[in-house]
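tool_call: predict_structure(chain=1)
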Amino acid sequence: MRYCSKLEFALALVAVLSAAWSPVTASAQGFSADRASKEGPGFQVGRLVLHPGLSLEGGYDSNVFLENTNEEDSFILLVEGYLDVATKGTERQSQGEMGRGEPQKIQFRGGIGGRYYHYFIERIPDNVGADANVDFSYNPSKVFSLQVLDIFRRTVRPFSDPNTQQGTTISYGRNHNQATIAFVGRSKSQVLEGRVGYTNALEFFDADIYGYGNNMTHRVPASLNWLFFPTSALTYTFEYAHQTYQNPDEILSSPTLLSKNNRVSNMVGYNGAITERFSLTTMIGYAAGFYAIGEDYDGVIARVDTRWRPRPTIALVAGYLRDIRPSFIGNFTTVNRLHTNAQFTLRGALQLGITGWVSFDKSGLALSPDGTLLGNQPHREDIRVYAGIFGEYRFKAWLALFGELGYLADFTNFQYAGTGALLDPASNYQKFEAWLGLRVFY
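tool_result:
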């Protein structure tokens, strides 16, 4: 990697600061979720490689509680650290450290990270977000293999205004853990690959007033892939899910109607490279949800992603998603989303990214627990928009300055009739967010 001239540094600073005046999503927090793509060479300890990282960031949020009136803004201080661990990859072995080796029988990757948030407004106490993950594979390239995954995420940023007396000190901690075991079978030629597994997903909230949303989902995912060219495959996926809510007493006092449910979905399609520079994923299928109380659903789901790399330093992505997702309002939400993303690398040290999407969302019949309408309309229909820019400049292979800017907005005629503590934000909000930080990683 080539590093800094004065001109490159000036361009990087302009890009990062201009990103500070352009928005980040409500979920954008610190490092990229895919840390593996941004890690350094690491410290080798036996067969393992350690990848530590630390960042210090300053941010600004123009609408902390996603409100449409009386918005509250705040500056934010964020300190984040992580440590990832992985088995030494065969790629390094093939580059001469240990000579070309056979594929490893055991592959492992895991990590833990923490994020300390300080808001400069009294309504939000200091809190710590976290993540942890384990990815273990046995015989990953053999005819039969086993994979064990566990992913934990804890977010602490506000997602709505609780409209309660506890609002001055409430915790917005939202915890999600997903544990998966999967069995994989392949033909000897590895042209065919099948996978079946079990996933347990648990979601729970720190605050009692949000306890009605605590839930557990049991999933049985399966897939079949047929590799008919070196870089192309036909894919079929299937999933069954059973979801229950964990606090029946809390559900009775919930501001929204919640119901245990069974869901099924399946998709078939193509994934692969059309040319050296252009690749495509296209999937279509059918999904249905059956609820003990409230409205059921069934309908077509689809996904199209196009990826174009006209030069090694430029990557462009555009796509469309139609999905039906679980929701705390109306049992489910139908999503139709258009999205685009562009990434540019300049002289090996400066990376810029631009992203945007627009989503047309419609909930099922939105009811209160007593069966009355939750708002002024039977369904909540939203147009949600996001636009953002990201910039990172690497002074060294282990030191980077980065910034993000984002704009997030929701447009709808739906208005809630009650004042309970909702897990979904109010309608017709707009939000600007900016971050600037320095990170050290290896």
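agent: The chain has one domain: 6-441. Proceeding to next step.
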